[in-house]
Design brief:
Layout lengths: L7 H40 L7 E2 L2 E2 L7 H14 L3 H13 L8 H36 L16 H6 L15 H11 L1 H11 L1 H12 L11 H16 L4 H6 L1 H20 L6 H24 L7 H13 L1 H15 L4 H29 L1 H7 L4
Antiparallel strand pairs: 1-2
Helix pairs in contact: 1-2, 1-3, 1-12, 1-13, 2-11, 2-15, 3-9, 4-6, 7-9, 8-9, 11-12, 13-15, 14-15, 15-16
Length: 383
């Protein structure tokens, strides 16, 4: 049978169909990123709803060893499921940073860093300064609600002032949740080197960072997080290669979810048995959870089961930025209100406190955006 040549018309039709498919996939991918912003911030709030070690005025008020049901719920939600949030944010940030940035020239790098100064650095400085002011006022006006573990501001040495915005306590800035923004900005500053490695070695670099992250083979240096480097690189590699990340995750979403739930169950059993030598399995579970979350979210959005709420997406950063001190205060007030605590009070607080903090954050954001739009845009990075 003679070979049939493809006509230019058929080539044009195939190209048009491929372009349409790609545009549709990019739309699903864009909506996936926008949709996930809010639920991931709620997950971050849940991570910080720690009712298992509440210290007020130097005294430990809760000991969850006496409350096994609460301890189990908190472990599954905060330590296992919600822990997906930060890595997934890094993944999406890596993808967006290099999105349609070919060639990645010095001029392009400068433009991107300039944009991130407004969207990340300015809010970082503002919120850390605001939290420092609130910490000072709390120490002066409400010392009975402070933990007693922070050094008094009046006794600060010059090194304490320097560390406020970098490593105030436990390797975190004074606005502790902003360690994520700090580490993200550092990775972005090093993006030319990262881009060079990813262009030359491609997925080998991602795999190497992944192994270092899974087995904790990295020095704990504030600002240089292996979590940031691995997941940022993972997302960046898709963007540099010009490949949408949603198709593969959607295609394997059932397998990803099954393996993730298996790892979640296994890690919970190991936690219950107080086995710490298998810590790397939890990291594997987080990576699987990141992929499964994106796969199922993209699938639901493509089927119109889920829809993006523009207000929630835009309010996400404000909720992230403001929630640190309010949630700490709410936890301490809840513990003091119900002391001595029972399991029912702990479980109720674990549900109600995050709901209250998130709802209050959404309300504050709505009021600020309406009456002070320029200020709100400034402290939220223009979101």
């Amino acid at each position: 049978m003679p070979h049939r040549f493809t006509t230019p018309y058929e080539v044009a039709l195939k190209y048009k169909a491929l372009k349409k498919t790609l545009e549709k996939e990019e739309d699903i991918q864009s909506r996936t990123i926008r949709f996930l912003r809010f639920p991931l911030i709620v997950a971050v709030v849940l991570i910080h709803t720690r009712l298992d070690h509440v210290v007020v005025n130097g005294h430990l008020l809760t000991e969850t060893a006496r409350f096994p049901v609460f301890a189990l719920c908190q472990h599954i939600v905060s330590t296992e499921i919600a822990r997906i949030a930060v890595p997934l944010f890094y993944f999406m940030s890596g993808y967006l940073f290099f999105y349609r940035s070919t060639p990645f020239s010095l001029a392009v790098y400068g433009q991107k860093i300039k944009k991130r100064v407004h969207s990340l650095l300015v809010p970082y400085l503002f919120w850390n300064a605001a939290v420092f002011l609130l910490l000072f006022l709390a120490q002066q006006c409400m010392p009975e609600l402070t933990s007693g573990q922070n050094k008094a501001v009046t006794d600060y040495h010059w090194t304490d002032w320097l560390n406020l915005f970098w490593s105030h306590r436990d390797g975190r800035p004074v606005c502790y949740q902003f360690w994520f923004i700090r580490d993200l900005f550092v990775v972005m500053l090093l993006s030319p080197l990262l881009h060079l490695l990813l262009r030359r070695l491609r997925w080998t670099v991602v795999g190497l960072f992944g192994l270092l992250w899974v087995f904790n083979g990295w020095y704990a240096v504030p600002g240089l997080s292996i979590t940031a480097f691995f997941f940022f690189s993972w997302g960046a590699c898709y963007s540099i290669e010009g490949i949408p990340f949603t198709p593969g995750f959607r295609r394997h979403r059932c397998l990803l979810l099954l393996t993730y739930l298996t790892m979640l169950a296994l890690n919970t059993l190991l936690w219950k048995a107080q086995q710490t030598d298998w810590f790397f399995l939890q990291n594997v579970g987080v990576a699987l959870g990141v992929a499964a979350t994106m796969g199922w979210t993209a699938h639901a959005l493509s089927r119109h089961t889920l829809r993006v709420n523009p207000f929630l997406a835009s309010a996400s950063f404000f909720v992230f930025a403001y929630h640190g001190m309010p949630i700490t205060l709410a936890i301490k007030c809840w513990v003091r209100l119900w002391s001595p605590l029972g399991e029912a009070q702990l479980l109720a607080g674990y549900v109600l406190i995050p709901l209250l903090i998130v709802a209050l954050g959404l309300g504050l954001y709505a009021v600020l955006r309406k009456h002070f739009p320029a200020f709100t845009a400034c402290i939220t990075g223009g979101r």
